[in-house]
């Protein structure tokens, strides 16, 4: 028990570090900027951050959420993204231990965090990111469960992609405007590779279910607001993985 607690904490710290990197990926990749150069800087005064200003969570708390140089407030968004990654990584380890499911969960969490940053700031899900995580997930399936499993789930990914594509055509026809972004459709390829055909369908259902109340609130506050759908698809996919939901769960719902 004590060892598990200790390891969970280690994974939490790794999550914080990765979360801080995902912030960089989500902000820079859609803007066409390099991920490594220049090093991190204050978005307000461009002051280059020293190593001790880059410690996830800790630096933010010590500096009271402000830049050391210009004393401007650092958006809480960075802090929340780091913390969220750490907590979700730790949770995945606590539930699954070191296992295939843990790797699957970690990949989905990482993809989710980057999509939250890029989609909510630019309404873009960079293709490179979707491609990267899809390839890695197929590769992990290949290593853990052999070529047959990898090939089957690759086909599930392609199936989920086309399902979403058909839904988009259908939505465009009904609403007479663009209903789904290209990024969301490509994202479904990853979902198919991660959870298979039935749970891909359920991901679409569950994500709409989660997104709907939030969309309504935002819509009544500001009728022009655009809500990115990508994060909801991935949070639904993550719920399915973390709670180990499968076809029996859907059948049990009686829908
Ligand atoms: Zn500054």
Key features of this structure:
about 260 residues, mainly alpha, 2 domains, 9 helices, about 0% strand, binds zinc ion
How would you portray this structure in words?
By secondary structure, the protein is mainly α. The chain has 2 domains: 98 residues, no CATH class; 152 residues. 72% of the residues lie in helices and 0% in strands. It is built from 9 helices and no strands. Helix 4 packs antiparallel against helix 5, helix 5 runs antiparallel to helix 6 and helix 7 packs across helix 8. The longest helix has 40 residues. It is globular, with a radius of gyration of 19 Å. The model has no long low-confidence stretch (mean pLDDT 91).
Total domain units = 2
Radius of gyration: 19 Å
From the N-terminal CA to the C-terminal CA, the straight-line distance is 40 Å
Mean pLDDT: 91
Sheet with the most strands, sense and barrel status: none
Helix content: over 70%
**Helix-strand pattern:** HHHHHHHHH
What molecules are bound to this protein?
zinc ion
Give me the secondary-structure category. Answer: mainly alpha
Characterize this entry briefly.
The chain has 255 residues and is mainly α. The chain has helices at residues 2-28, 58-62, 76-96, 100-122, 127-145, 147-175, 182-221, 230-242, 247-253.
Per-chain topology:
Blueprint lengths: L1 H27 L29 H5 L13 H21 L3 H23 L4 H19 L1 H29 L6 H40 L8 H13 L4 H7 L2
The structure holds zinc ion.
The site of zinc ion has 8 residues, from loops.
């Amino acid at each position: 028990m004590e060892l598990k607690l200790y390891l969970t904490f280690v994974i939490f710290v790794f999550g914080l570090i990765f979360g801080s990197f995902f912030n960089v990926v989500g902000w820079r990749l859609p803007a066409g900027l390099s991920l490594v150069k220049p090093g991190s800087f204050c978005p307000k005064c461009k002051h280059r951050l020293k190593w001790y200003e880059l410690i996830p969570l800790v630096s933010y708390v010590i500096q009271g959420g402000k830049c050391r140089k210009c004393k401007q407030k650092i958006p809480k968004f960075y802090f929340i993204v780091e913390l969220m990654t750490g907590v979700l990584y730790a949770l995945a380890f606590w539930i699954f231990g070191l296992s295939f499911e843990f790797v699957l969960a970690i990949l989905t969490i990482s993809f989710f965090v980057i999509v939250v940053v890029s989609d909510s700031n630019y309404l873009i899900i960079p293709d490179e990111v979707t491609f990267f995580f899809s390839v890695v997930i197929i590769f992990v399936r290949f290593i853990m469960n052999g070529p047959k499993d990898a090939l089957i789930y690759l086909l599930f990914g392609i199936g989920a992609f086309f399902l979403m594509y058909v839904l988009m055509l259908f939505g465009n026809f009904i609403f007479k405007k663009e209903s789904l972004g290209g990024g969301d459709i490509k994202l479904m390829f990853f979902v198919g590779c991660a959870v298979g055909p039935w749970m891909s369908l359920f991901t679409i259902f569950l994500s709409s279910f989660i997104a709907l109340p939030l969309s309504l609130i935002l819509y009544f506050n500001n009728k022009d607001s655009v809500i990115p759908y990508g994060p909801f698809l991935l949070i639904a996919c993550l719920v399915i993985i973390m709670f180990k939901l499968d076809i029996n769960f859907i059948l049990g719902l009686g829908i």
